[in-house]
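Recall that a protein's primary structure is simply its ordered list of amino acids. Everything else, from secondary elements to tertiary packing, is in principle encoded there. The following example makes that idea concrete.
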Amino acid sequence: MIAHNEPFDVGRVVYLANRKIYGYAFKTMLDPKTTLKVAEITAKANAPMIFIQYSKPKLTEKTAKGLIYLDFTEATSTPENILKEFKKSVAVEHVQLLKPTKSGVLADTYFFPLILGDERIVIFRKSLYEGFIVGIKKQFGTAGEALLYYTGFDFGQRAYKYYKNLAITQDLNELGEIAKALGATTGWMQIEPVNVNTKTKTAQIRLHNNFECELGKGNKKPYSHFLRGLIAGFFAGLFKQGVLVKEKKCIAKGDPYCEFEIRSKNK
């Protein structure tokens, strides 16, 4: 079972009406003393942190990249003075002030591109990917559903190869743990592998809160085509042969989760 479901704002775009929010992008030596120094500077200026994030995926790297957003609405200092204080810190190699737009939107325009592991990633809001998935189904009907399935199938094959290389292992449990972690981290879905049997070439998995079927709530039939294709592509790689995937349960038709049954085409 999925024990926890707590939304998490990625935080790199902020809009707080009637608040003076400024940000700092920096590169620094990441250690407890640096973090403490940053906290001391902001506390002294009465500029509360509303967002802080560090990026240091490799332990061999000597420096980390970071973002801090501060609320200067009731501050006793200015964003420019805080910038000077950060620059005085011997641990900070570089720092850049991020200013809000005239309408008050503050965004990280300094760090680009976004990466996950060693690959570039992009973020789509629901209003955009909804237009893609629902739009294809409305415009092309069953042909659109087939397009989504085969697009997902290609995704699934690529995902299997990526997870396998990332894990540097063929161990089924390890591959499953990586898939669960990345599925949740990227916001696609929460994966619950119920049963996977490489000998019989069969599997049963559950997806909680998957982004595709969430778009189809109120339908009377299973809604997944893209993710069903992704599952097929992944298990075709795992089983090393073609598979059939059927969505037995779906949140679009009122079930608590989406459940898929996978079996070899040879059965």
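The chain has two domains: 13-112, 126-264. The mean pLDDT is 91.
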